[in-house]
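Let's do one together. I've listed all components of the complex below, 719 residues spread over two lines.
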Amino acid sequence: VAAQIKGGQALRKALRKFEPDLQKEVQATMSSFLKPIVRKARGYIDSAPPLSNMVKGHTVFKYDAKLMRGGIGYKTTPSKTNRRGFSYAASIMNKTATGAIYETAGRKGSDGQPWVGRGKDIFNHKVSHSVNKDAGRDFINSLGKVVGRKPKLMGRYMFKAWDEDQGRATHAIMKALENSAAKFKQRRGI
Amino acid sequence: MATPDLVIGIGAEYIGKPAFDKANKSISGLDKSVAKLGKTFAGLFAAQKLISYGRASVQAFNADNQSAKRLTATLDSLGLAFEDSRVKTLIGNMEKTYKVADDQLRPAMQSLLQVTGSVSKSQSILETALNASAGSGTDLATTTQDLAQAYVGNLKGLKKYNLGLTNAELAGKSFAQIQDLINQKFKGQAAIKAADPMNQLALAADNAKETIGKGLVDAINSAVGAGTGLNDISSNMDTLAKSTAGVIKAIGSVAGFVAYGVKGLVNSGAATKELLTGKSNPQMARGQYARGGGKAIDTAAAKRAQSEKEQIARNKEIAKLMQAQAVQAALAAKAKKEAAILEKANQLFNIDLIQNIAALQGKVSEEDRLRLKTQQELLLGNAQSAGELAMKLLEVQKQAMLARQADPFLGWTDSTKSALDAIQKMIDALKNLGIAQQMVGYSPTISTAAGTFYTTSTGVKSTSPSIGTSYGYFAGTAAGKYGSTSTYTPTSVDVNLNIVNGNLTADLQNQSVTGTPASLSRINPINNG
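Okay, and this is what the predicted structure of the assembly comes out as:
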């Protein structure tokens, strides 16, 4: 079961309002654990494209290492509540579309999407319209394997670095929040 | 900025379900919208219903108005225009008493008036019709029509009221008697129906509709101008522009008329004086107009008495006619019966028939008996029997002709052939007329094996089955095996020929000995071939 916290948002609001230095301290602690992961993730992005043709064109598929690296980052402020009602104390993200494609391609299968070819089923984006029916497989094979323990946490850059961190960052962030809460209570005499 | 798809969240905290909140908000919003839409729709629906009701009301009023006009016109055409107000009062009273809408009563009264020509008689029949209609469940229009027809002697429609009389009994009764019978049978039925609250409610609703319709029509008439109908609205619109121009033109002429009007007023004083003193109208001065109302009432009563008198006379005339018709019908039936008796009696004196019967009583051959019987049926005019007997006779003649051909090895003569052809033609002609062919004089001898017999479905045993009968075949004793049931149809008949002097046998043997196979052919005596 994923670790959950209670009252995290209230604590962050209280810190921001009453103990800004404590809030900064918490954020600095979080950054110290998240930055290495991000750096590591960026490091997995090769400067040269896996296949020479990947640098051609102007689509999101165009391999741009600089853009992709810039897209990987972290956040130490609480996220917005998602559709399931959860908010996160901190997060790491891969923001660019190109980065997301190269990060996750091959998650669902090593052969890519089913091939239909040009001009067929043109509005279906879950099939390959390439002239080369092996395009998907060639693309995925050139990128290497995706790494991760769960299908939704599998990837080549950010998810790989996160997987390799083995939950240390999560533990540290939880600890930092606990400490800040204790300090807040202590200062405020609660 | 949209949340990126690829995010690793750290330190998850459950805040709530904004999606549900959003959904709740949406649902409450939807509820409000639906309620609002419902109100709007209800308003719209109500407005539509109102318009529809208004239209129906106008139609109801129009129908009512038209039926009243038709009734007035009928009274006028029958010379009973003076009875208009009385009929209206009668219908109004009947509506109140029997709770039947006036738009049903008016056409009924109209049809009765057309037949009887009398208001009193029509009223009486209409009351009978109301009872009969309520009691039998038929609608008033049908019942009235039936009674109106019965009044003039057509009693066919009265069957449905189950009066318990035969056609002859009904025909023997006068209309007054029939009416009494109907009144007796359906007494008080209209009052029972009138007491039904639903009936009263329906009538009240109908009347309300007519009243509302009248109000609407009046309102429209007021809007478009008095004496103008809905159909005239469009034409009024067309003429409005022209009229406006005309009015403007006319204003110029008004000034001229004003001066003339002033002059007229000066003279009006003298005219009024003359009018009041009766100088200008001697009748008014004598007070005759004051007595005029009473005179008019007397005239109406006289006219009514006259029309009643005429109606009674007409009634008598109809009764007389019906009586005459009945007498005629009885005379015709009597004449028919007498003709039938005469015809029968005439047969007794028919010489041919007498001779025929006498001949049949004597000793005659089977063929002659058939001839005589055929003749008898022909004389009596029994076509089917005559046809069957003729067919039988032809078959007998045919068999006799064939039997006369004694030597089976001789060919038929031309005369025999032509006679047979002629008989066959007659048989075919009778067949075409639907007469079945008769099997006569054909009884083949059937040889059965020892102990073999046939059993009919009724259990009759026989060793010589007859043609066309179904049998179960048994071999051995009656308790033996049962074969298949079939209809016996002979296929061939064995002919046994005994040669007395033995020449034929010798010739055949000699032929066989010479090496030529022995054979026997039928010899044609005409050409020896």
